[in-house]
Each structure stands twice: as structure tokens, then as C-alpha cells.
Specification:
By secondary structure, the chain is of the alpha+beta class. It is built from six helices and six strands. The strands form two sheets. The protein has a three-stranded antiparallel beta sheet with strand order 1-3-2.
Length: about 160
């Protein structure tokens, strides 16, 4: 999957966010901008706790409430997706110019791998059609053990 460079994504995200904020009469803040930069400079699926930790490295005064509010705004603006994986903690991923993808989640180490598979998408469409069902959106999450955790379990004396 092709990834856009973080700087380019961050600039596009700021532009779209500024427009979204202005349309709602909200104000732009330095802390919100820093959180947006931090979020879009990372790849993967970040929890609010992880994002707070990263943002605090740049500004120790940033708190969890500010990050939660900013992520709500990013989600409402369509710039981030809140993912509720098994285990309870919400994780966020960038939604700006992203294609649909699914996830493999390791139940041991928590690693999340993204994948795309056209055959799976076609099969889901066919099943929906056979049932007279119109799909508006979906998510596919497969839980199990990643290769590294399988290796550790088969050889427990091995160093991590």
C-alpha cells in the first residue's frame, strides 16, 4: 500500500481541518495543531495514551483531555478513524486519502497489520447481494498470533 509522506499529509490535514473548524465557528489552537502534526507524523494505530506521550515530548503542558477533544474533531472531520479493536482501547488511524483495508491483530503482543484483498471484498459483495443486503461499510478484523509470537511460543527460551 502506498503511503503519503507525513509532511504532505500533515499539510493537507491542516488545510482540511482549518476549513472544517472555520465552517463550525471554532478556533484554531497551537496545542491542537501540535497534536495534529504529531498524529500525522506517525503511522499505524495510536491510542490516546500513546498520542499524549508523543505530544508531551514536544509540549509537556498538553493533557489527555486536549488530545481526546482533538481526536474527536479529527474523527468528525473525516481525517481520522476511531477503531475499537478487541481489548477495549480505542485506537486511531489516519483516514485522509486512505483506501479501505482490513486488520490482522496479534492477541499476544498487540501488533496490528493492515492488509487489502480484492477477493475478500468481492466475496463480501457477493454474499450481501445473495441476501438482498446493501453494505454501507464494514470492517474485517482477524485475531490470532503474529509470526514473531508464534516463534516465541514454540521456543520459549528464545530472547525477545
Amino acid at each position: 500500500m502506498k503511503r503519503t509522506a507525513p509532511k504532505k499529509v500533515s499539510t493537507a490535514a491542516h488545510e482540511r481541518l482549518a476549513s472544517w473548524i472555520a465552517a463550525r465557528g471554532l478556533k484554531s489552537t497551537r496545542q491542537r495543531d501540535l497534536i495534529v502534526d504529531t498524529f500525522f507524523s506517525k503511522t499505524g494505530h495510536l491510542s490516546v495514551d500513546e498520542l499524549v506521550e508523543k505530544a508531551k515530548q514536544r509540549d509537556p503542558s498538553i493533557g489527555a483531555a486536549t488530545v481526546y477533544r482533538t481526536m474527536k474533531i479529527l474523527t468528525d472531520a473525516g481525517l481520522a478513524s476511531a477503531r475499537h479493536f478487541e481489548g477495549g482501547q480505542t485506537r486511531y488511524e489516519a483516514a485522509l486519502d486512505r483506501h479501505h483495508h482490513d486488520h490482522l491483530i496479534c492477541t499476544s503482543c498487540g501488533n496490528i497489520a493492515e492488509f487489502e484483498n480484492e477477493r475478500i471484498e468481492e466475496l463480501q459483495d457477493r454474499v450481501a447481494e445473495e441476501h438482498g443486503f446493501t453494505v454501507t461499510h464494514h470492517k474485517l478484523e482477524l485475531y490470532g498470533l503474529c509470526a514473531a509470537c508464534q516463534q516465541r511460543q514454540s521456543n520459549p527460551n528464545r530472547q525477545r
